[in-house]
């Protein structure tokens, strides 16, 4: 069976050129970047070259990039690192953040911090004015994601950044789902901290970075050596960094093409469902082009996903980090309420490399068939 992978928001296939770069680096760039001998200097140059690619991709300085093991570590470093450095016990976030943010905030709540969880509207969007209203004299951090991983809604980060400009409040955005899809300029967004992960844009798992604006206070969370300018201890994953940089370079070259292609896939998918008479509606608005989250009344999402899988289609009911859980999506609950049917009948399709129009047509037709069959039960 030819499988059709429509879960790129959970993780993405590694680009063939990235595989080649990674494999080549594993065999040739084996020195420790902290060593002063030739092998170490070779690794250091590769690390510096990659760091420059990351920095330029978001209009930052090379020294403002901290290499991490991925998005979760970057989020944790941003949140715990800020809390450890600043006076004050109040944090503002949104109800639809990734669990790497929500669970970090919950941990700080158990330690005596107060966290304001901003609501979202029915489209999954935070209001910048709500951030302003929630600010207090003891607020130390605002952390709001750039693009939501479940419904694709883009948040008004530049607007929030503008209202925080000139204050002593640190502003962090989780850009893991948006990086490689949206154009990102940290100066335009006015953010102090920004998290990124390689595996969402066809790079390897286990590598990412945190942007830290010059002058932003941040306490290291890993203790050991003096790597990453004493901000993140541990020998850098040089092959992973090289592969990540290759993935970023490819993504930047193809950004506009991907935007148009994925938007086309989204419209094609919905048009086929409509043509087949499937009753559905789309969750979210102001969306990134690669995410399509649909509510299909009358279906049980668990049965639906099993049937899709048996038909050779990989999709998701929400965040991969809650896979196996029968709890409704916290994002959809925040949008519609705890008892809303959307939280139990919504499915996420997400697009990426390797997909063709024929794949989308086939997947949409099978989705329509399964939807109508299950809705009759």
Structure report:
Its cofactor is pyridoxal 5'-phosphate. Keywords: Iron, Iron-sulfur, Metal-binding, Pyridoxal phosphate, Transferase. This is cysteine desulfurase. InterPro entries: Aminotrans_V_dom, Aminotrans_V_PyrdxlP_BS, Cysteine_dSase, PyrdxlP-dep_Trfase, PyrdxlP-dep_Trfase_major, PyrdxlP-dep_Trfase_small. GO terms for molecular function: cysteine desulfurase activity; iron-sulfur cluster binding; metal ion binding. The model has no long low-confidence stretch (mean pLDDT about 95). Strand 3, helix 4 (about 100-110) and strand 4 form a beta-alpha-beta unit. Helix content is about 40%, strand content about 15%. The protein has helices at about 15-30, 40-55, 70-85, 100-110, 130-135, 155-165, 185-190, 225-230, 240-275, 300-310, 330-335, 355-375; strands at about 5, 65-70, 90-95, 115-120, 140-145, 170-175, 195, 210, 280, 290-295, 315, 345-350. The protein has 2 domains: about 5-10 and about 255-375, Aspartate Aminotransferase, domain 1; about 15-250, 3-Layer(aba) Sandwich (Aspartate Aminotransferase, domain 2). It starts with a strand and ends with a helix. The chain has about 375 residues and is of the alpha/beta class.
């Amino acid at each position: 069976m030819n499988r059709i992978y429509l879960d790129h928001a959970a993780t993405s296939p590694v680009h063939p050129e990235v595989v080649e770069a990674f494999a080549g680096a594993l065999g040739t760039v084996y020195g420790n970047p902290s060593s002063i001998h030739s092998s170490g200097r070779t690794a250091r140059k590769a690390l510096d070259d990659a760091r420059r690619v990351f920095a330029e991709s978001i209009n930052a300085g090379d020294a403002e990039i901290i290499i991490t093991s991925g998005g979760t570590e970057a989020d944790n470093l941003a949140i715990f690192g800020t809390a450890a450095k600043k006076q004050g016990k109040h944090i503002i976030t949104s109800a639809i953040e990734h669990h790497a943010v929500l669970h970090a905030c919950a941990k700080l709540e158990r330690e005596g911090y107060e966290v304001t969880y901003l609501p979202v509207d029915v489209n999954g969007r935070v209001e910048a004015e709500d951030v302003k209203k929630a600010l207090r004299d003891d607020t130390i951090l605002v952390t709001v994601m750039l693009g939501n991983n479940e419904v694709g809604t883009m948040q008004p980060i530049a607007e929030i950044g503008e209202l925080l400009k000139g204050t002593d409040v640190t502003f962090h955005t989780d850009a893991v789902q948006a990086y490689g899809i949206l154009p990102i300029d940290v100066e335009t967004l006015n953010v102090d901290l920004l998290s990124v992960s390689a595996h969402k844009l066809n790079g390897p798992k286990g590598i990412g970075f945190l942007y830290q604006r010059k002058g932003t206070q941040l306490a290291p969370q890993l203790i050991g050596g003096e790597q990453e300018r004493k901000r993140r201890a541990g020998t850098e994953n040089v092959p992973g960094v090289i592969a990540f940089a290759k993935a970023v370079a490819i993504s930047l070259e193809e950004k506009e093409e991907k935007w148009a292609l994925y938007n086309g896939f989204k419209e094609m998918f919905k048009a086929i469902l409509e043509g087949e008479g499937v009753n559905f509606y789309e969750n979210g608005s102001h969306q990134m082009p690669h995410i399509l989250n649909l509510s299909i009344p009358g279906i049980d999402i668990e049965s639906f996903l099993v049937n899709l899988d048996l038909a050779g289609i990989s999709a998701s009911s929400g965040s991969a980090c809650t896979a196996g859980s029968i709890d409704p999506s916290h994002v959809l609950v925040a949008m519609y309420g705890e008892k809303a049917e959307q939280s139990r009948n919504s499915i996420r399709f997400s697009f990426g490399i390797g997909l063709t129009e024929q794949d989308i047509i086939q997947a949409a037709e099978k989705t329509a068939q399964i939807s109508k069959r299950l809705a009759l039960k």
